[in-house]
Specification:
64% helix; elongated
């Protein structure tokens, strides 16, 4: 089980580290098409909800 413990310990270290300074981005950062589609769906749903609440 040391492999599972090391995996969770590494995840915990990455989640609890200080945020990057503003403007410092990794050079190999990329976004998948699925993530872009998810963001589009969330934006459309927020727009639809705003339109619905404005008209009620």
């Amino acid at each position: 089980m040391p492999g599972a413990f090391e995996h969770w310990a590494g995840l915990r270290r990455r989640l609890w580290q200080l945020p990057r300074p503003h403007g410092e981005q990794p050079l190999d950062r990329s976004v998948s098409p699925l993530k872009l589609f998810y963001d589009l769906v969330v934006a459309v749903l927020a727009g639809q909800a705003a339109h619905h609440f404005r008209n009620t």
